[in-house]
Automatic annotation (TrEMBL):
InterPro entries hit by this protein: CheY-like_superfamily, Sig_transdc_resp-reg_receiver, ST_Response_Regulator
PANTHER family: TWO-COMPONENT RESPONSE REGULATOR, TWO-COMPONENT RESPONSE REGULATOR ARR22
Source species taxonomy: Bacteria, Bacillati, Bacillota, Bacilli, Bacillales
Keywords: Phosphoprotein
Residues annotated as transmembrane: none
CDD domains found in the cross-reference section: REC_CheY
Matching SUPFAM superfamilies: CheY-like
Superkingdom of origin organism: Bacteria
Keyword Phosphoprotein part of the UniProt annotation: yes
Species the sequence originates in: Paenibacillus motobuensis
Modified residues (4-aspartylphosphate): D54
Stated name of the protein: Chemotaxis protein CheY
Residue span(s) of domain Response regulatory: 4-119
Length: 121
């Protein structure tokens, strides 16, 4: 069975890029969210195996959403997506429980490597 992944990013084209990388590599994208609040709702509804979470988003940022998801499911597997130059935020995210991070612009082999490592594939 394919691993089920939730993609969270405020930019539609970024979600599309990640979806494309994942589906080409045999993963199932079960949902998408465009901000942290939506991410929490979708997580509760879909129970994905893994979440790719953008750090900088309107409404609620990725780190706040990560903390809420970890309250719901302490075993949640979340990989943060950051732009270059967000090292301090990446450190905050790892401390909040993120399993890994990938840097934009995405390189498909790095995305798959991070997901496989996090899922233990």
């Amino acid at each position: 069975m394919a691993n089920r992944i939730l993609i969270v990013d405020d930019a539609a084209f970024m979600r599309m890029m990640v979806r494309d990388i994942l589906t080409k590599n045999g993963f199932e994208v079960v949902g998408e969210a465009q901000d942290g609040a939506q991410a929490i709702e979708k997580y509760k509804e879909l129970h994905p195996d893994l979440v790719t979470m953008d750090i900088t988003m309107p409404e609620m940022d990725g780190i706040a959403a990560l903390k809420e998801i970890k309250k719901i499911d302490s075993n949640a597997k979340v990989i943060m997506c950051s732009a270059m130059g967000q090292q301090a935020m990446v450190i905050d995210a790892i401390q909040a429980g993120a399993k890994d991070f990938i840097v934009k612009p995405f390189q498909s082999d790095r995305v798959i490597e991070a997901i496989n490592k996090t899922l233990g594939i």
